[in-house]
Amino acid sequence: MSRKSKFSYEIKLKAIKKYLNGEASVLSIAKLIGADESTLRHWIHAFKAQGPEALKPHNNNQRYSKEFKLKCVAAYLTGKGSYNSLTHKFCLRSSNQLKQWVIKYNSHQELKDYNPAPEAYMTKIKKTTLEERKQIVEYCKDHEWNYKEAALKFGCSYAQVYNWSKKYRARV
To answer: What is the pTM of this model?
Structure first.
């Protein structure tokens, strides 16, 4: 399932080519198509770094290893560039990704490999008793609130585990 972008591939490509051909400024093109100036600049940098493929919609989340994330964070923390420049250098889709990694790193949280397990998110709702829910929440609590792991272990949906844990945490 593709994510729906506000701007089509063709509009992005036309806007970038208009800018690169010197026909108009970033600001005037952004106003013309109804985009933010920083968004258009991001498209331009992505286009220059990765070509037209960078403008196409993506069907899946990009997967980044723990080592790659640490490399990006280290580059930022050692002053090798701004969030935006490093986003383009490392071909990230958004500077917000890098910002979140830096925040986690500075908060002494572990940066983990991204490995989506669709079976945890796509599992059908499982009917459970109150005791089973307590057991699942306790397991989740003992495993650093890893909802995905608990959902896979007990055969229920991620959303169920998340909601039960959220209710538990609100009461404690």
So the answer is: 0.57
